[in-house]
Amino acid sequence: MRKGKIMPAMAVAMDFFTVLLILLKCPSLLQSGRLNKENGESRGSARMSINFVGFIAKPKITITKKAFLLSFSNNTKTKPSTLTTFCSIRCKELSCNRMSNQNQIKVLSQLLIMNKAFRSQALVSYVLQRELPSELFSMVAEEDSEDLCKDSAQETLERITKLVNDILASDGSYSDSTLSTDDVVKAIDCGKSEGGSQGRHWVLDPIDGTKGFLRGDQYAIALALLDEGTVVLGVLACPNLPLTCIAGGSQHSLPGEVGCLFFSVVGGGTYMHSLDSSSAVKVQVSSIDNPEEASFFESYEAAHSMHDLSSSIARKLGVKAPPVRIDSQAKYGALSRGDGVIYLRFPHKGYREKIWDHAAGYIVVAEAGGVVTDAAGNPLDFSKGRYLDLDTGIIVTNPKLMPSLLQAVRESMEEKVSSL
């Protein structure tokens, strides 16, 4: 277990493939959960099996086509060993402390993010397709290969391809084939799906909170599953999130054990466990109903959310605690276990929310008993494609505080408009 200072993300970064393996070696997360819109299982429904190889065992997920059951099984008696992240970024060539040119640092940082995001997206796409051969595969993801296919990026593409093949070979189950650069590009571009209200679509953000990632602060790796436009499953990995409560603190250099994974299935609740452990606990949002005792989360970057509007809402509501500002969907994870009570997100005019920035976090909070709506109190609609067309912003809290929060939001927004 990692203790003390958070490991700098630029030194070692956990990939989503690794996170999937951690998740799937832990059958105690959910023995079973019914994801259904109908009662019972329809006859003749086709069954799919996802078999990922874990570090210790081969747990199995079985999903039936319509009213589908998600279950984990693990026959091994071997105790989990200490997790070794076999896929990491070691930026030996990025000696940023020696650089005087800030533009160089910015460019290298962007290259680092691109490298990791492409690699993670390619791995998730490839493994899901290998394990779901009979399923019409659709994935809505943040990245595409346009920049990677430029002549100037061929060396980067070759490096990413080598890393992907090394990871697959080290696992053992996927060593029967070696991916070409074209295969990697194809896997990445499987994330170009538009999603929508028909069929099933995986939703992936390979690195959510890129600035937090580069600073060594909070970032998340998020995967969700849409079924007929409804989020039915979510996995949210937060490698730098402490296991202890962060309420009243900050995301910087937090002491104690770090690395959390949240897992939710519709109707089955939300569970959290350490990235280094197979034991899971069911989590619930805070039940605080007195705004004066509440704390709230908002985006770390002022460019991502209007901090002045959030402050006005907090004052009207009677919140006395200062905001806890952290990057990424880690806010959803922290809120789901009761670290805070409210999450406010009000992007600047013209910004369109993407579904991969919220799908996994949404179900993690909802299954923990929370409520996630737009600024007008409408449920988030993930059935419209790659974007969330919503009213102004996103607010999250428990059912007890939502009515008064909506009133404070409405009054603050009216004042803001009248002052223009």
Automatic annotation (TrEMBL):
<feature type="binding site">
    <location>
        <position position="142"/>
    </location>
    <ligand>
        <name>Mg(2+)</name>
    </ligand>
</feature>
<dbReference type="InterPro" id="IPR006239">
    <property type="entry name" value="DPNP"/>
</dbReference>
<dbReference type="GO" id="GO:0046872">
    <property type="term" value="F:metal ion binding"/>
</dbReference>
<keyword id="KW-0378">Hydrolase</keyword>
<feature type="binding site">
    <location>
        <position position="208"/>
    </location>
    <ligand>
        <name>Mg(2+)</name>
    </ligand>
</feature>
<protein>
    <recommendedName>
        <fullName>3'(2'),5'-bisphosphate nucleotidase</fullName>
        <ecNumber>3.1.3.7</ecNumber>
    </recommendedName>
</protein>
<dbReference type="GO" id="GO:0008441">
    <property type="term" value="F:3'(2'),5'-bisphosphate nucleotidase activity"/>
</dbReference>
<feature type="binding site">
    <location>
        <position position="357"/>
    </location>
    <ligand>
        <name>Mg(2+)</name>
    </ligand>
</feature>
<feature type="binding site">
    <location>
        <position position="205"/>
    </location>
    <ligand>
        <name>Mg(2+)</name>
    </ligand>
</feature>
<dbReference type="InterPro" id="IPR020583">
    <property type="entry name" value="Inositol_monoP_metal-BS"/>
</dbReference>
<keyword id="KW-0460">Magnesium</keyword>
<dbReference type="GO" id="GO:0000103">
    <property type="term" value="P:sulfate assimilation"/>
</dbReference>
<dbReference type="Pfam" id="PF00459">
    <property type="entry name" value="Inositol_P"/>
</dbReference>
<comment type="similarity">
    <text>Belongs to the inositol monophosphatase superfamily.</text>
</comment>
<dbReference type="InterPro" id="IPR020550">
    <property type="entry name" value="Inositol_monophosphatase_CS"/>
</dbReference>
<dbReference type="InterPro" id="IPR051090">
    <property type="entry name" value="Inositol_monoP_superfamily"/>
</dbReference>
<dbReference type="InterPro" id="IPR000760">
    <property type="entry name" value="Inositol_monophosphatase-like"/>
</dbReference>
<keyword id="KW-0479">Metal-binding</keyword>
<dbReference type="GO" id="GO:0046854">
    <property type="term" value="P:phosphatidylinositol phosphate biosynthetic process"/>
</dbReference>
<feature type="binding site">
    <location>
        <position position="207"/>
    </location>
    <ligand>
        <name>Mg(2+)</name>
    </ligand>
</feature>
